Amino acid sequence: MELTLLTLLSLACLANGQGVGSFSQEVHLPLPMQSCTSSGCATQTTSVVLDSNWRWLHANNDYTNCYTGNTWNQQLCPNAQTCTANCALEGIDQGQWASTYGISVSGNSLRLNFVTPNSNGKNVGSRVYLMVSDTRYYMFQLKNREFAVTIDSSRLVCGLNGALYFVEMEADGGMASFPTNRAGAKYGTGYCDAQCPHDMKFISGQANSEGWVPSSSDPNSGSGRYGACCMEMDIWEASSISQAYTPHPCTVNRYTRCDGVQCGDNGGDRYRGVCDKDGCDFATYRQNQRNFYGPGGTVNSNQPVTVITQFLTTTGTDAGDLSEIRRIYIQNGQTIRNSPVNLPGITAYDSITNAFCTATKNLYGDTQDFTAKGGLKAMGDSLQRGHVLALSLWDDHYANMHWLDSNYPTNGNPATPGVARGTCPITGGKPADVEAQSPNAYVVFSNIRVGTIGSTYAGLDY
């Protein structure tokens, strides 16, 4: 009887869709950025919002959890439609940012702590997005532009990834496209990326509870039937050991809920999905430049570094196609050019071009999925439509981050080009170990700038 009444009640208010809680007032942390031209830089009033997946999800006007640990409440969520109507995302007040999630800002600097003990146990990692208002994400249009940010990865050990990247999310978090989503960008909804993640609790305004399988290693996560796909441009994926920047094109040109083969889930369907999950990575250690980045390296990961990424076009104008993604570093007042590829039989490329991607993938024996999914032109078209900035800190329950900082595949010969990604041991990086041994790890992102080519770093005081 209880379940029947609950279901009837849910169907009666179905038009309300995914709700918003009323127990905490939503507060966004101010994080100003700058927009630059050749005439100088102007400060923009921007802020950050926490991703919806980290939030308390509970019954409408009730403290009962819709989701606990890594499982759904079957009374509130007997099916996706009912779950969507029954459940609300709660706001985050000023005090919860640091005490519950380990996130803080100081001026133009954002710090993400790894493990934060709190009244509910602990929070592990986080993901936030840059906002232009309380209800809309800041949309970056990066083709024929450059992006600059200063990053401190010095406290990130093997198995951790302090990531800054862009994804083709919708500016309002999907409210207009999916009317059952009443929370929107204000509550951090609408995430997608090129991995087509299945761990999102809500996709396209609907609960992703159907077919949900709790993770065997992550007490807070699981996997639903659907995935959330879109183009992704990784500006910085790094620990203090290794780093990479990587474009991931897709054959879809907007936020897309995937199902089955189109998700390209790991296994035989990986390259049949709509997105290039491998991407075309420029990872200096993988390209046999072993001393370029790391503790005491040319780019010294013991200290903050400013990272500039330029998105150059065929014509040098907004109308041209994306033809090159170039990287510049500034540290201790010195401008450092990106290291060239140091691999047998390969041109000494020092930036991402279509030719670089084809040549390195041929040498590594990788599938040419980057080209198949449209290469740099598709990536540039996506960047012109607009991307949302995501900043995160995470550990890896799938591959222990070995694809970034160790040998991958772990049974590969490290002397084979493309296998060695960093100095971390193949026995390391397990999330349980990293969380227990390095809970105080953190990453800091600061001084975010975007502008015309050459405008974001000239004259800065480093």
TrEMBL record:
One of its GO terms (molecular function) is cellulose 1,4-beta-cellobiosidase activity. It comes from uncultured eukaryote. It is an enzyme of class 3 (hydrolase). It comes from the Eukaryota. Gene3D superfamilies: Glycoside hydrolase, family 7, domain (2.70.100.10). Belongs to the glycosyl hydrolase 7 (cellulase C) family. PANTHER family: 1,4-BETA-D-GLUCAN CELLOBIOHYDROLASE B (PTHR33753), GLYCOSIDE HYDROLASE FAMILY 7 PROTEIN (PTHR33753:SF2). Its EC number is 3.2.1.91. The lineage of its organism: Eukaryota, environmental samples. The keyword Transmembrane does not apply. Keywords: Carbohydrate metabolism, Cellulose degradation, Glycosidase, Hydrolase, Polysaccharide degradation, Signal. One of its GO terms (biological process) is cellulose catabolic process. Residues 1-17 form the signal peptide. InterPro entries: ConA-like_dom_sf, Glyco_hydro_7, Glyco_hydro_7_sf. This is cellulose 1,4-beta-cellobiosidase (non-reducing end). It catalyses: Hydrolysis of (1->4)-beta-D-glucosidic linkages in cellulose and cellotetraose, releasing cellobiose from the non-reducing ends of the chains. SUPFAM superfamilies: Concanavalin A-like lectins/glucanases.
